Amino acid sequence: MRILVTGGDGFIGRALVHALRVGHDVIATDRGDGDIADPAHVDRLFAAPIDRVFHLAAVVSGAAEADFDAGRRVNLDATIGLLDRCRAQALRGGPVVRFVHASSIAVFGTPLPARIDDATAPAPTLSYGTHKRVAELLIDDATRRGDLDGRALRLSGVVVRPALPNGALSAFNSDVIREPLAGRDYECPVGADATVWLTSRRAAVANLLHLAEADGAAIGAERAVTAPALAISIGEIVAALGRVDAAAPARIRFAPQPDIEAQFGRWPRDRSFARAESLGLVGVASIDALIRDHLETTS
Amino acid sequence: MRILVTGGDGFIGRALVHALRVGHDVIATDRGDGDIADPAHVDRLFAAPIDRVFHLAAVVSGAAEADFDAGRRVNLDATIGLLDRCRAQALRGGPVVRFVHASSIAVFGTPLPARIDDATAPAPTLSYGTHKRVAELLIDDATRRGDLDGRALRLSGVVVRPALPNGALSAFNSDVIREPLAGRDYECPVGADATVWLTSRRAAVANLLHLAEADGAAIGAERAVTAPALAISIGEIVAALGRVDAAAPARIRFAPQPDIEAQFGRWPRDRSFARAESLGLVGVASIDALIRDHLETTS
Question: Which residue in A11, B11, B176, B203 is deepest, having the highest Cβ count within 10 Å?
């Protein structure tokens, strides 16, 4: 199979490409080798028929808020461009692309609901989340029309990311784990009582691969699925850090920012991922497992 | 005020333009004088600053299903183009446009929910409804960012339209009233037990004007409002026709089409328009009032 991965040099992309290279012809693209919103670049990527697309390229939350045009270009225009390209390929009699979109729990906005399940209406309050939800809707319609066979996985905070900032306002999810364990002081932009939704890169990659294989009829007409996520308070994360390194908790100072807390620190514990689970998607077992995994990967 | 009305030569547009001409500088545009998806045409429309936009131009349900590219061009691309133009005007220090979008209950898809209220999650199943929902989301985000001050009114079947077909799959809503009363036989594509949501042109225009004046804070962050609609079965409509013209009911023959019934004939009686009503939006009192209004307008 010929598989295109956009955002292929990102935190999730690199691991996904690594997993896909076994047995497939993988075309990984990222900003280093071309602009995914540039039709000429997409022409080159689709020079030979593509069977599967994993669309991970994104300008993330904070960066898209700070530079609307940059976010719009990648998160909306480039996504529409890719869907158009898949449609054109199908109309020419080429393969109907299985299109897996990395969506986000940012499709849910502030104030975050007291419970989130498969019936919760997305109501984004960031440009990033808006464009992710728009992509989900366009993918549902394109799938219904037979232009492609789409799926969208709503990812929560995927941790532990490396220190290189990618502009995500949710970066604290990773920073609060990585920095104290590396012996560095860390100022956390949400309080200890803030609750976040997390998953691991391992689970995110496994779920993207699994959702790509899932039977379309089993997913249903609405192709966006919220991935299972661990709901945990920052205080609980700090306690877990202490179980690994007794000195780590003291390296954290709290300086809560209300806007960040409202969008990123008020995720409900009352949640259901019934659709995802029925499709075989997985979450992480515990914060301890997640931290252990991080230490094994980086040591 | 300088007011732009797109789709200004349509059934609703003509009545809206007529109402607005008193005291305002109204620029009405429709396909006869330019392509709303053509940036050069939009340049001309925005040559002088615009204060208010009523965006009614659309390729409606059936036409957009039959010709995806035509629907996409007007319903999605042109709408995004207009939002961009408003943003550009605001960024240049011009007026922040009050942008009123004619949305549609087609944002709700099949199977239609047993109850629809302000908490019902839109899940469109037509390209038309998908693009309407996408526009709503982009309008919410543009409003939040201050690019414009948007509002979207989800209209149900606006009747009684003239016989000229505009490609709406819901055209039967008007046809079933107009044709038998004009003495013509009519074949109805949904059964007598099908239930539809209706409003009048008078109510639609009043609501568009009223929503344009509403205080943004009273509407809230989600700017799409479902307009009050009469829920009524085709059988009840036929009975009302009989009260005006005893011979009219016999002119109707039923030939139900399952696809049409599923999207257009299964609207729930269990419904709430609480948000719309709190904003002062109105529906029609009864099917008899609606038919009387039609007869007075056409006689």
Answer: B176
